[in-house]
Amino acid sequence: MSEPASQEGSKPVQENGKEEKERKQEATEVKVPTESSQSVPSSSALDNSSNVPETATDEIKSQEIHLEEQTKASTDLIKDSDTNVSKNFVVRKPAKVIFNLDPDVLNSKLEQPWKKNFYKRVEARAQAMQQKIINKDNLKKELEKKAEKKFPRNNLAKEWFNTENMTLKTRAYLLDKLLPTLVPGVEKMLMQVEKKKLWAEADITTKFDPINHLGEYLMRNNPYYIKDSGMSGYQRVMRDVTEELKIHVPNTIGNRVSKMKESIKQKREERECINEVKIKVANIRKQALQEQFSEWILDPKGMIPLVVIQNVLHEFFQNPDFQLEACCKQLDIADSMGPRLNKMEFTEYISSYIADFKSETFEKLLKHLCHCADEFREIIKTDMRRQMFAELFLCCDRGKVGFLGRQRTLALLETFYDQSSKMLRSLLRNPRQWPFIEFEEIDLPEFWGDMDNQKHIYEDFDKVLLEINALLSEKHASKTQSKLLETPEDQHKHDEYTESTPPEQQRGTTAEQEPNRISTKEQEQDKESTGKKELYREIVTKQTHTGSTPEQGSSRELITEQRRHSDSVTEQGHSDSVTEQGPPQRVSSSKQGVHMESTAEQGRHRESIAAQGPHRGSISEQESHRESVTEQEPHKGSRAEQEPSGEIIPEKQQDIDSTLQSGRGSIFRESRKSRESASFEHTEILPQEKRTQEQIYEEELFVSPELQEEVPISRRKYHLSETTKKEVQKDPSCEKSQKIEGKSWSGELLTCNWNMDYIKCEEEEQANLLYSSSRFTDLHAIIKNIQSYKEVKGGSAFNGVSFNLLQFVQLLETFVGEDAPLSVSETLTSFFKRGYVETKEEKISGLEQIRHNASRVRRELLLEALFQKWDSDGSGFLDLNEVDELLYTYKEGMEKESMKKAKLHIQFPKPHPGQEVRMSSKQFQKYIQLVVSELRGNEDHVLESVVEFLMNSLERSPTENLRNCARRKWLYRIQHAAETSGVSLEPVYTETFKALTQDAESHGNKKISAHISLLEENRLLPDRGNVLLRNVASTLDDAPFVLNRVLYRDMKGISFTVVDEGKPIHVPQVQHHGNVFFWNNSINKSDQNGSFLALPLQDAYMRVFGVMAVDTLRDPQKINIFVPHEIRFYQGVANVFSTAYHYVHSREHILHVVITGIAWLCEITSDITTITTYFIEPGPKQDSDYVLRNMMVTRHLGLTKIHRNPPIIFRKTCIFRDFLFKCTDTSEVILASVCGENHIVIPLRERTGKALGVLDFNIGRNKMLLYREFKDLQKMIKVVQAACYEILGEISGEIKKNYILEIENVGEVQRAGILFFRIMLQELQESLQLLTSLDFVSLLLYDYHPSVEPTYLPDTKSQEVEANTKLVHDILLAVILFIHPELELSSDFGNWDKCKMYVNRHFVTNICAFDPTARHVEVNLKLIGEYIRDHSRIEVWKFGNSVIEYLYHWAHICLTLMELSKKTSSAIAPPLPSKTDSYVYAKMPKGSLPGKC
Length: 1493
Fold this sequence. Notes:
Layout (H helix, E strand, L loop, with lengths): L1 H43 L7 H37 L14 H8 L2 H38 L17 H28 L14 H11 L12 H14 L6 H41 L10 E2 H12 L7 H6 L9 E2 L1 H9 L7 H38 L7 E2 H14 L2 H6 L16 H6 L11 H24 L3 H13 L2 H10 L9 H25 L5 H20 L11 H8 L8 H7 L16 E3 L15 E3 L20 H15 L15 H11 L18 H9 L8 E2 L2 E2 L9 H4 L4 H11 L7 H9 L13 E2 L1 H12 L5 H14 L4 H31 L7 E2 H8 L8 H6 L16 E2 L1 H14 L4 H15 L4 H22 L6 H19 L4 E9 L9 E8 L4 H4 L3 E2 L7 H7 L3 E3 L24 E7 L5 E8 L12 H39 L7 E8 L9 E8 L5 E4 L4 E2 L9 H8 L3 E5 L2 E9 L5 E8 L8 H26 L15 H22 L3 H8 L15 H24 L12 H4 L7 H7 L11 H8 L4 H7 L2 H21 L1 H4 L11 E4 L11
Antiparallel strand pairs: 1-2, 3-8, 4-5, 6-7, 9-10, 11-12, 11-16, 12-13, 14-15, 15-16, 17-18, 17-23, 18-19, 18-20, 19-24, 21-22, 22-23
């Protein structure tokens, strides 16, 4: 017991000794600086002549010595007390237990008391020293004041100040070194001379020598040795002069310091001046922003949502012309409409981002704000309209089923459209045309061969636009000519020329002479816009009263002269051919009052195709490019061409059976027939009972034809010209109204987040019901994970039968358009309320459908959760035998025989070598539902009882449940990486290897390596096998040895065995297996210990496309064999990777198809400015809304820019461009106008009907495409959508791959590159099969003799007939050369009478059986190209014959496919960027596609 005690007693002694040493060190450290500080003032005190500071310092020193003695005494006492305590005894205080005490408080309590005393003494000494220095300084100042009073300043010394450069240094030196001593000496010497009176008597001899006296004085008062006793007033002033003169001496410290001070002062002044200017500019800008605030429409509290202003700034910062992307990153856009800004907050918020803006940028920002204020007004108006339609939906949905019938809705829209006035129909969109009806509802002859301009979505759009262009060209030509004829002689000559020249030549001449001066001044723009409005009013008034169109002869003359005018403008390079027309053109083209027959009347007046034969060439129709009215790119010119308008191709009423029209198409056809056969009561469009005076006036304008002349031309937001807008902005009294058509804004945008509020998610509702049920407690956690791992939340599926709320509202909004006032929407709403009536049977069927959908979703959730609980290892499959073994025990085996009957109705996958039949999740769900259908009772109740029985029969430990949960999360990340990768496989590879390594570390305690190899065709060394395995990805450690290495069949390895057998192979110990290939040759054979597992990668058809290998060669443990649950999980990883891999490749193939379709469209259209492709991806957060990826952008030249890292677009940043999310929410086509540009936004749908992407067609300032371009756009979209359905169906295994052309067998990438042309080729072949022999007979009547030269000058009509004849002969001859290439070498080639004999009854059959990519096909592509490419797309459209239309497209597609088949390696390669590129450009070969003109 004595040893531990002595140890405890010695510790305090040692601690006390350490404390003493610390005290000594601290005391010495404190003492040194005090001594040094004391020496400084003592030395400075030597300069003073008085003895007062010396006595003060002596007193302070004595006090310090006294304090030091006291401290020494106290330390000695402490030492003695410590030694006494250590020698006698040790007292240990009881320990204190302290709870919930802050660490600062605890540390303060643990501090030793001697430190506090020491710090107090040191602080007191420091304060005393500081006070001593202060006293010395004060005393010195007092002494200087006394001396100054005693010796006043003598300003005579200022005469020494002279900054002459020659004597500056000498003067400064003398003043500094000599004169301060010499001047007092001379003064003393003179005083002695005066005292001895030597200056008066010159002859007196004396011993006094002034020079000696002066020298003695200088020696006695040498400043280096003798302290200055005091300074006189003269010396004091001289000292100041010296210091001031030193500043001007170059290359001295004082001079440099003075220059630095001057520069600092100058910079300070400049900075202050700049700050003052900035403050003034900021105040001016704030004042401008405050004035601009009144442009916005505000909520009842006079505030505006913060998110709106943030969107305005975000859109401005995103403009690449300003280069403000850094400012865009600082914006943290709000997620809701809650935060608001008043006038001052609005000003301060914007000012915080524009402090460094230049004046030009700020002016552009102001313009942008004014423009966005107008846009925001339109957004609120649209929101009010959508609220009306939403209330209408809830009113019509009396059964509260959540959807309305599509056919009944379209039928009501058609009735409303037919009963509307002509002026109102010019604002509305035709509900009988696309996009209101689907492509499957349009017969093939009507879709591909109908060239009737009357069937445009806008009534008589092409005709009215052409007349406007023609009349405007005449008006501008006459105005320009009158300006040029300044003298009376010129005017007289012009009159004579006018009398002797036909009107057509006059128009052409004046159009050619028109200079490029129209769009140079704002005043001229205003005049042009006003003149155009008046002209349009005249045209609409004339057509409204007459109800008929002009004669064809006069219209042809207008067209001819318009073509001359447009050609001259094109030659001059004039981009703005008439005037800068933006939104006013949209209004003028929309408010057309031209008469258009109804569909029923058109059907009665249609003529047969046979009767059209030889007369078709003489019938003309007007087509005009709208660039003469709208502002376009410089490369585009305006044109006016004749197009066929007289004939309408008859509709085929019988159903068309084809391979491309599946059950989906039959549903659309049946629904269309039911809509046509449905009878509605005659409902008149009556005004509402309660309406304002303005609404009554507007309705009178739309209903009464007498008042149509007085209708204002524009109700658009761009009604004012630029000059008028500037005047309004300058006048502060001209504030915009806070009401929209007499209605105030409530302050909320109720339709802003409709996708989350109104899209009824049945899965979430059923999941909540299952959570509340106690029967499935074990499945609750799994169901929650399933809901959280849902791919994309939001979005409605289009089914072609019914509309939900969002789809219904969007359909009515598309029908009404943006030009119509709110009164039209109110009229439509009241009409719908009276007309939409459901029968009792329809209500019951709707309720049954809701119950069926809810039951289906509930079943899928339960069975998916049961599958995941059963598959605890995440393998992705279950053994059928194991499932049957457990199922047969249900009700003690009483239902065993009934369950066996279910196997007769399902086709199971092929058994594996061990007679193991593996079922995926979908196969398991289908099997259980078939089993339940064989049992007695209610299917829902029976299924829930079966699921409950299986759930309780499965026993899983908590460890297995946790392991299952973790593995499900890792598998979900692989799929999520594919969905958010932006069409890239790199994130998928990364997440796959993460899942493997994390599971090995967590559940296997192993260190693994892995790599993935994919099958490729062996083209370089076919002797070593037809295919090879290329390592495309690996873990980081093995990358130098494995990546990009190739494994051939003749090499060692088990990978090709896995490929051939389609099952995993596990090698427990690779050192004892002789057929394992080691990529790393540097490892010794003795170190090659570990396990190896090779897993096949299979697609939906169970075809192996690669191998995933996992090994433990880097694991230091000797025994590291893969256990069964690890192998099953690795199989699940391979399965999920395969799904993710094909998901990414499906998007790649879709992009490839879209690029091909866009290239085809851009070559035959000219009014599409840009085409942007977006894909939908899940949001970055778990519960967030989906986002859009900007995958690629195509400009007007057809050049596509594909982003490697596509930018993400959030909904909250698209308040002003919400049409993209409207399209994806509803899966419907959107027609929108933003920033003066019109957009046609078209969804790319999945097979379920949901949108997977969006195509945004920007048509610039044009109101709409011409009907020809509009039809070509429909053709492109239909083919692209059909290709998407085929690609997605093949990837998922829903449909089998269909190889039609020989080139499709080359590879998947090459197949995706020609899929667009193959589907279009099939569509044309089916359309040709529906033709009759009479259709071809009319073409063979055209006689053409190219060898005969005309002896007379043909007129316009004969030229047109000759051109049509040449068109028919060239197209038919090109098609004949495809099918009969031997005709080129025969003598019949130049004889048309013999060539047309090939157009026989087998002609169409040969066309449909022709494969342009077959190897045996050899044709002269150059000769065929000469026949086809001489004729433009417009020329074919003008001709107006459906057979020529079909054959023209068919020949071009065959020519394109033949050219692509010759260079499959380069032209059809996937145009996706590589790892090192930020983007890449892609463009299809130009020579194979049809031209625009």
